[in-house]
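Exercise 7 asks you to align residues with tokens for two separate proteins.
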Amino acid sequence: MVWIELTVAGILETVWATTMKYSNGFSKMGFSIVTLIAMTASFLFLARATKTLPLSIAYPIWTGIGAVGSIIIGVLLFKDSLSPLTWLFVGLLLVGIVGIKITTGH
């Protein structure tokens, strides 16, 4: 269950980063509200996960999911262009996230 909470926290991090972009510097109220709700929920799920998981495990996975998710959203929705070398490093981020999960005793 803790890994599901941590995954949800990471996905919500991607949601709030995306809606923050859509909020245009918090000038669009609807997107601004969704940003704040998703941000709060993301932190709450992270806090729940850190009740069981060490911070040294939970935080990098949370930020990793958010980073990779934001990269994918940037490419798909905002037409960001990434070089092949950048994609290699995105893949390494994924390997790191999975590696941390596999090597923990939780």
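Second protein for Exercise 7:
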Amino acid sequence: MVPTKSALKKALKKGYITVNGFIASTATIINGGERIVLTIPEDPTPNKRLIFPLKVWFEDEHLAAIHKPAGIEVSGNKFKTITNALPQNLKASSLPDATTPQPVHRLDFATTGIVLVGKTNSSIRVLNKMFEDKLISKTYYAVAIGKMKPHGTITTEIDGKPSQSHYKVMESVPSKRFGTLNLVKLCPKTGRRHQLRKHLYSLGNPILGDKEYALEGLILKSKGLYLHAYALEFEHPFTNEIIRITDELPEKFRKLFGSDTR
């Protein structure tokens, strides 16, 4: 049987063809009687794998929780993302609806802390719904600049939508450059984009290291954003256990306030 040009094109995508010992192209004329050989590499297009070790704080057949470092996106079009690193860091689920692990919420590029991951189709759907229904309690820590009231609730609208965050100042230290630095515990009750950063900025107490929501002359460069997703608490949607996951404060926080700050 004489191969057609379309067959040659498909074959060439996977390997190469020789006709009587010469590499063929779609312009090669076949008259009949030629010796045609198709050569296909064992792995012509290997999948790139992101080798990026992650700390895993919790994992079972349904879900997992990992530590997200600063300087990496949770997901997106880039190769280096938390999403692409998950398969190499988590055990594959043995459940019938197991799928490629997927984050069920996001943290900003510069934010550190816990990211919750679904390992099955059903867990991804349920966890997304739990976030929508505010059934997952989130606790953050930030370093905020300037004098603050000991505690309060911020209700400044974000993008025209109702928003709410509770805060409590856990410790304050004097600073030559910033006047006062505060270790602030934050509990967002809504999930708007950049909510905690915008809310603290609206008080006049921007987060240390925030270049986007900052007061003139109070931008800290090259140290990163001092915002950390510290804890998640929720009822496990499949085992009904109460799950509380914590992620210790980064070293740069402890340098400002000491090791026992919570």
